[in-house]
Specification:
Elements lengths: L5 H12 L27 E9 L4 H4 L4 E6 L12 H4 L5 E3 L1 H13 L5 E4 L5 H12 L7 E5 L5 H6 L6 E4 L6 H8 L4 H16 L3 E2 L5 E10 L8 H12 L4 E5 L20 H13 L6 E3 L6
Parallel strand pairs: 2-4, 4-5, 5-6, 6-8, 8-9, 9-10
Antiparallel strand pairs: 1-2, 1-3, 7-8
Helix pairs in contact: 1-5, 4-5
The chain binds iron/sulfur cluster.
Length: about 300
Amino acid sequence: MRIKDIEKRIEEGYKLLSSCNLCGFECGLNRLKGELGRCRSGKEVFIASANLHFGEEPPISGKNGSGTVFFTNCCLRCVYCQNFPISQLGKGKKVSTSELSTKFLELQEKGAHNLNLVTPTHYIPQIIEALYLAWNKGFSMPVVYNTSGYESEEALSLLDGVIDIYLPDMRYSEDKKASCFSTAKEYVKINRRNIKEMFRQVGNLKVDHFGMACSGLIVRHLVLPEDIAGSQSTFEFLAGEVSDKVRVSLMGQYFPAYRASEFPPLDRRIRKEEYDLILEYLNLCGLSSGWIQEEEFSK
Ligand code: SF4
């Protein structure tokens, strides 16, 4: 077992659920008794899918795919969420922690390079329990934690030593924008504190002989129209306060989904010149060891 105090972690995790403060919203509700916070999740875990996924960064997807579990619901309410049927509309089915651990093992049997937990924040205690069950049955893949980066300090400390690869978003550099477009309070402070803590736990990305990720931090940054994401400030923070070697995955594939049409300029894709400018900022900050994903641009 890779964590000596894993049973204690599970116990502490369920204690957090009894007055939930797993994320920056700190709802304080008793989810063990079925109370639902902003994430609309109680004690039971819901997942939308568990499959091999080939669209992640090269050291995550590789040739065989990443064993990806999409968790239902989300702490944030991004008006442009590209997974909104799952994150906002609750698409998914209930699984016990034992069934979840079986899904993890099945993904390993299918040849996945890693286990990729997507939108896991509100289920951290149950996920640790499922991992514990899986590790006892021979599960050995690296664990990727694919998150909006809005966890509480307590939640992240539960994950220390459990997670091999952190894959957090950095969505905004201004709280006003985070509040307006994702209804998150104090996003910048919480998100940046978490990025530093994730880096403390796992450091920069390490890959094996085949170029597949073994451990480390990869930061995802989605370019938004009219620089709503405040990209330059995010890059300056990363280069100045985390590491200029940190891997950044710059994403240019924004498209207006969910309620984005109600929030111009989020009602359009980004323009090529917007993307190029952000790419220039990235290079100016010396963050050139990540990946760029360009897609179709708006005219
Ligand atoms: S995970 Fe976050 S949003 Fe959900 S109940 Fe806990 S504190 Fe509230």
